Amino acid sequence: MYGLKGLLLEEEKRLKRxxxxxxxxxxxxxxxxxxxTTSNNKVQYVRCVENSDKSGGxxxxxxxxxxxxxRQLAQxxxxxxxxxxxxxxxxxxxxxxxxxxxxxxxxxxxxLHQIRRGLVNPVEETWEQRLALWKxxxxxxxxxxxxxxxxxxxxxxxxRSKSEKILADMFYDYGIEYKYECPxxxxxxxxxxxxxTFLSKKTYEEIYWEHDxxxxxxxxxEKAIRKIDQYIKNNIIPGxxxxxxxxxxxxxxxxxxxxxxxxxxxx
Length: 267
Hints:
The structure is a single chain. By secondary structure, the protein is an alpha+beta fold. It has 2 domains: 4-99, no CATH class; 138-266, Trna Endonuclease, Chain: A, domain 1 (3-Layer(aba) Sandwich), CATH 3.40.1350. It contains 8 helices and 11 strands. The strands form 4 sheets. It has a 4-stranded mixed beta sheet with strand order 6-9-10-11, with helices on both faces. The protein has a 3-stranded antiparallel beta sheet with strand order 1-2-3. A hairpin with a 6-residue loop joins strand 9 and strand 10. The longest helix has 33 residues, at 67-99. The two termini are 13 Å apart.
């Protein structure tokens, strides 16, 4: 599976942000620790300051009017615990990220001489093998109505609208393989034809792209919303396995948004 290293790097960034916060908080804190006791249903706060030789410590009740000290000591204890786990995880992540590559198992196979490769069964299919098998699976798309305007992509494939051509050409320029109007069965709804279907290199799952191009038409909008709801009911969630772009008579396809989607989900 691809993409784990990217997730590790993002998590490492999060931990380092947290580390910066707690390190700054712990630069100027009062000595001692906080103990909390109850007596006759009343809460009592006790400050414990350890002797320099660690032979014991002094205990002192904190007055009710000194709540800032209570909060500082409580915050200090929390921050120290956070710092301990964050420091530990940062060290582990640093070592793992330096050593780990998403495709390290695949690279062993691809690194073999072609003759030797033919003698070996890899433990799992390479990405190129998976993609080739996916591409080779035949399907029947929707038919075009007679007399419908003919629009062709850079790939030489016929599509239904100029916006679909723009999208298809963007995929082509990025070297992204896709299937146009490949049928998909949604349980409880029937067969739909997503405008574009992709195989994710990160998850090996199919990702679907719907371009809703007539959002100024109330009847069209109602059908589009109903269909998206059916995607969700079939666990095809927008932002994970479903990409949706929009257009109306007064608002054209936003190619910069489409490019963001491509970079986030398809590369």
